[in-house]
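Render this sequence as a predicted structure.
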Amino acid sequence: MSTTSTGDNAAPYSVAIVAMGPSHAEYIQECVRCAGRQGVADETWAINAMAGIIEHDRAIIMDALPYFEKAGREENTYLRGYAPWLSKHRGPIYTQQVYPDFPGSVAYPLEDVLNTVKYAYSNTTVSYAILLAIHMQVKHIKLYGCDFTSDNNKGFSEAGRACVEYWLSDATWRGIKVTIAATSTLMDQCIGRRLYGYSKPPVITHAEGKFKVEAP
């Protein structure tokens, strides 16, 4: 089995990371506009439950996969939703280790990734996806549904947002282009990320590796 959608084991140039937050709707809209997901990104990486919903090249589910089998028997409608497809997923599902009952599972290359980024900090599945993209030298990371807006577990959501934003900063320093869904709360994208203090924000352009700031 090849490791990329191109079939040549090369790293994809662009990757769409799609999680469950409200701004995942923008990914669907862009796919419709492009008449296919390849018009949005070379590969789509589905986070957790999105792997049971959208077509994708890789799934990333960092919880122990047998957990979902157990949880599926409990009174939890959300977790039961994994049961019909997770054990049948053809993979790759990046997770903690290979699980025999989940033939699509592959061990997340944690050691290799950490040796690339030089810092062991990843407290949400989305950040593991970003770290994998950095390690693979993807050139353009596009994020949808990575909004960290859950009211059920606000403290964890906010911690996850900080981690993701940290690694997006690291990615930009490495020359990786980052695009975030316009309606996402991530990096305050939904409010335009204006520069604080400017009543009339300056016009900022970026070309040939340099920023230029001009009066509005």
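Summary. Residues 14-62+108-214 form one domain. The radius of gyration is 18 Å.
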